[in-house]
Design goal:
Elements (H helix, E strand, L loop, with lengths): L4 H9 L16 H6 L2 H22 L12
Length: 71
């Protein structure tokens, strides 16, 4: 979400690679949310994890996750 900009900018300015996925149903299309499933979200998170894990392994750096929920 937009409200994460401050922390994303802070981390990126210090050299961290930041991935902020917008999950299905949370991209500004309310109709999409009605069709979103737990499996959709897990698949999208796993895809992001794999992308970052590949980068972290290649760079020999640790991998951290931060979650945010309003519900």
């Amino acid at each position: 979400p937009k409200r994460m900009d401050m922390i994303v900018d802070h981390l990126a300015a210090r050299g961290y690679v930041v991935l902020r996925p917008a999950l299905k149903g949370h991209r500004g299309n309310a109709a999409e949310l009605a069709d979103a499933t737990r499996e959709d979200w897990l698949r999208e998170i796993y895809r992001g994890y794999c992308t970052l894990k590949t980068h972290a392994d290649a760079a020999k750096i640790p991998l951290y996750f931060v979650g945010y929920s309003e519900g």
